[in-house]
Automatic annotation (TrEMBL):
It comes from Fulvivirga marina. One of its GO terms (molecular function) is DNA binding. Belongs to the histone H1/H5 family. HCT subfamily. Might have a role analogous to that of eukaryotic histone proteins. This is Histone H1.
Length: 58
């Protein structure tokens, strides 16, 4: 469940950068959004692998 908390925290931490990029046209915030989305992708993949491993053991 720890990974879920990490996932939720990561998404919530990106909220202000999404606002700054889309509503205020802040390009630096767009860079942070892109980095955060890459981190999100990597974390999601880690979770997928973990779930598959647990499922295969059971």
């Amino acid at each position: 469940m720890n990974k879920f908390a990490q996932l939720r925290d990561l998404v919530m931490s990106l909220e202000s950068d999404f606002d700054k990029f889309y509503d205020k046209n802040n390009n630096a915030a767009g860079t942070r959004v892109r980095k955060g989305m890459q981190d999100l992708k990597n974390l999601a993949q880690d979770i997928r692998v973990e779930v598959q491993d647990i499922k295969n053991k059971g």
